Amino acid sequence: EPGLYLVATPIGNLEDITLRALRILRTCDRIACEDTRQTQKLLNHYAIQKPTVSYHLHNESTRTEELIAELKTGGRIAVVSDAGTPGIADPGGYLAQAAIAAGIQVFPIPGANAAINALIASGLSTETFTFHGFLPAKEGARKTALEALPRNATHILYEAPHRILGALDDIADVFGASQPVVVARELTKLHEEFLRGTAKEVQTTLAARAQVRGEIVLLFTLQPTQAEAPKLSIAAEVAALVKQES
Ligand code: SAM
Predict the structure, then answer these.
(1) How far, in Å, from the CA of 62 to the mean position of ligand 1?
(2) Regarding predicted confidence, which is higher, 40 or 237?
(3) Strand partners of residue 195
(4) Where are the alpha helices (DSSP H) in the chain?
(5) 133 burial via Cβ count (<10 Å: 0-12, 13-18, 19+)
(6) Which ipTM score applies to this complex?
(7) DSSP per residue over 177-228, as a string?
(8) Among 51-60, 84-93, 184-193, 224-233, the least confident range
(9) CA nearest 35: which of 82, 86, 77, 79?
(10) pLDDT classification of 203: cutoffs 50, 70, 90
């Protein structure tokens, strides 16, 4: 079928790609890539020969026009990012919006994503969760962003390895050194690692290393604040009383 196919690719382990994704990459007209060299490695691994075109932040608007024009003539274009699900903290979302606005069909092709896979193995509550992408790089703005996070939810962030120690410091400052956190590093790769503990403990563990490397997802669940907690328990008491009455 003609349309725009948002194809998820592996986040490390090259086996993490679906049969459907491979079929679409093999049969589409061309592949729009965040970085053509990066995607070429995947295509070579699966012996897929297909024209690629770069699609990233800096050429997004001109490229979008070209690709939409091609889609309008009945083309089948696959969009991939460097890793994982296109549009999640990387390019792809803009093209999907433009395609929808132009009346073109958009198909999600499911697969790897760092946030969701870090979450499911984190041991934290998966009931209510929010993904924030990358926090601001500067400490002041990062703390302000942390302070604004809603309680009663698990928060999922992407973090650069050279900023993880600073981010853990800020979490300890804003929510207390005993705030539980999970650092998921190098998911699906040889050195995959989950560090679970308080912000202080995980910070100390990582600070003891010569260098923190690799790709990182940072997660933590915020409990209701003390001001909100009594409200919640009053609501629960009222609910219990109402139940007794009926
Ligand atoms: N689109 C991707 C996805 O679906 O997860 C995310 C792209 S974003 C530009 C890259 C960031 O995702 C990294 O800096 C890291 O925070 C996270 N990430 C990607 N692969 C990862 C992995 N294998 N392990 C841990 N985090 C990863």
Answers:
(1) 26
(2) 40
(3) 183
(4) 19-27, 36-45, 60-72, 93-101, 114-120, 139-147, 164-175, 199-207, 228-245
(5) exposed
(6) 0.99
(7) TT-EEEEEESTTSTT-EEEEEEHHHHHHHHHTSS---S-EEEEEEEPPPTTH
(8) 224-233
(9) 82
(10) very high
Tokens 């870090």 map to which residue?
118
Q: Each residue of 160-179: pLDDT tens digit?
A: 999 999 999 999 999 999 99
16 C-alpha to center of ligand 1: Å? 14
| Structural tokens at position 27 | 């049969």
Say yes or no: CB of residue 183 within 6 Å of ligand 1. Answer: no
Strand 153-159, strand 129-134: pairing: parallel
Ligand 1 centroid–CA 174 distance in Å is 25
